[in-house]
Specification:
mainly alpha, about 475 residues, about 0% strand
Length: about 475
């Protein structure tokens, strides 16, 4: 029953497991529980509870493991698809021919079936002017990724408007390589941290057994109900920790580069711009003064610690809006640093066939929401003063991001034809852009994985608490047995 159920579950994610592997997993799990029974000196009822726990948990582990494999396969398929279709498009310049070439390069599987659906759409649709776009949307729907969408948008634009393709394809391949490297690095990091969590769980179970083996005559707490129950509880906590940590290995890697909610950040950046005042508001004055009065009262009553705390809270009360604004600015800077390189890469692709002003206008079609208003302001200012560097220098100036300042200075130089050749300037823009994106994404990935460190600490903490209880039970039992305690 369990095997059929798990097979049906795995079919939904293009995975399967053999009967031999499935039942072997349970045999190994039951054997480990028997070892724990010996190590923790568990009585049979408590060992039975552990067995009942492991049956559904192992089912979940197996599903999550195969989900991890599926997500990695999807990521690898998209990386291979992007590289193959770009090389093919470079040779023939036709989306249909490129799709056929990619189809032939894949073995049977989900990606090949999806490409076949796109090809069927091309051959069976006659009454639509967007037939090619519709075919590519089929692939984008199945594999939701900004990298994939950018490649498709580029090919559609070339088929529609023509233009150079060698340099843009080189840029897209370089972008894909950097993206692939970042994701693979995160996969390796998550795998390493997951192993550390498992080692932490093993350590926690060893900690649980420490008190049981203290060499003291006539004192054996292993049969104590509290000790036995806590051992089972720690085991359950460890199982849940492993399940939680396992989810970090089965992330949808394709969606990691998708930007956060556009409307949310449009609203946030507009709020930030509207509230430019650095004055202390009446609410802040009231809150700060209230804590200051409490601080004075505390000092009068000679409660110095409370007075210091109240005084610090009064300082925060007076400056709460300034602190809040600073936090809001830092949140926006993080998102801007993610969005800007993505927009700049689109702009650079357009610069292969357009001047700066025209490329800026065309880039609005796919611009991240957090940058939309600023780019529109930039375009308006350039139209009013096409020779002036001020519009470029004013772009997101209030956030004072060094990498953006450098990129915009290069764009101005490119628009005026100053300095080195256009190709050389574009190359420098790309290099700096990739460095900025890599740095930003590494910080973001590190933030996403911060919970894994907490999961690494959790098993030892839970086992340490059990150790404290075991020691208390041990002392009570020891004192009672020697008749000192009563």
């Amino acid at each position: 029953m369990f095997y059929k159920k798990i097979q049906n579950k795995l079919k939904g994610i293009n995975q399967s497991i053999s009967k031999k592997c499935f039942y072997t997993s349970y045999i190994v799990a039951f054997s480990l529980i028997f070892l724990l029974h010996l190590l923790l000196k568990l009585q049979l009822p408590f060992m039975g509870i552990m067995i009942l726990m492991i049956i559904p948990m192992l089912y979940g582990y197996i599903v999550e493991h195969h989900k991890m494999k599926n997500e990695r396969n999807r990521f690898e398929d998209v990386a291979r698809y992007i590289e193959t279709i770009l090389y093919s498009f470079e040779q023939n310049g036709k989306i249909k021919d490129s799709l056929n070439a990619v189809y032939d390069s894949f073995n049977d599987g989900k990606m090949k079936k999806t490409i076949q659906k796109a090809n069927n759409h091309l051959t069976s649709t006659f009454d639509s002017s967007n037939v090619m776009e519709g075919a590519l949307k089929i692939i984008e729907k199945e594999y939701e990724s900004n990298q994939l969408k950018d490649v498709h948008d580029f090919m559609l634009n070339v088929e529609k408007n023509g233009g150079k393709i060698d340099k843009p394809i080189e840029l897209l391949l370089n972008k894909k390589s950097m993206w692939e490297y970042r994701i693979n690095e995160m996969i390796q990091d998550n795998t390493r941290k997951f192993k550390e969590v498992v080692m932490s769980v093993i350590t926690s179970l060893l900690i649980c057994s420490m008190v049981l083996y203290i060499p003291t005559a006539n004192v054996d707490i292993s049969k104590n109900v509290v000790v036995q129950a806590l051992s089972v509880l720690v085991f359950l906590i460890d199982l849940l920790i492993i399940k939680k940590a396992q989810k970090f290995l089965s992330i949808d890697w394709l969606k990691l580069d998708i930007l956060n909610n556009d409307e949310y950040y449009i609203k946030k950046i507009n709020e930030y711009k509207k509230n430019k005042t650095n004055r202390i508001s009446l609410v802040s004055v009231i809150i700060g003064s209230l804590f200051l009065i409490l601080a004075v009262v505390a000092f009068i009553l000679k409660n110095q610690w409370l007075g210091v705390v109240m005084f610090l809270l009064s300082i925060f009360g007076y400056n709460q809006e300034l602190v809040g604004r600073r936090i809001q600015k830092n949140v926006l800077i993080k998102e801007i640093k993610r969005a800007f390189p993505i927009w700049l890469m689109d702009l650079v692709l357009l610069l292969q066939n357009e001047n700066v002003q025209m490329a800026l206008k065309k880039s609005k079609e796919n611009i991240p929401g957090i940058l939309r208003e600023e780019v529109e302001i930039l375009i308006d200012k350039i139209e009013m003063s096409p020779e002036s560097p001020k519009p470029y220098h004013d772009f997101l100036a209030e956030f004072d991001i060094a990498e953006i300042k450098t990129a915009m200075s290069m764009l101005y130089s490119l628009s005026n034809g100053d300095g080195a050749s256009a190709d050389e300037q574009i190359k420098k823009i790309i290099e700096k852009n990739q460095k900025m994106l890599n740095k930003t994404e590494k910080i973001r990935f590190s933030d996403l994985n911060s919970k894994l460190y907490l999961l690494f600490l959790a098993p030892v903490l839970s086992a340490s608490l059990k150790l404290v209880v075991d020691m208390a039970v041990f002392m009570v039992t020891f004192l009672t047995s020697t008749r000192i305690g009563g």
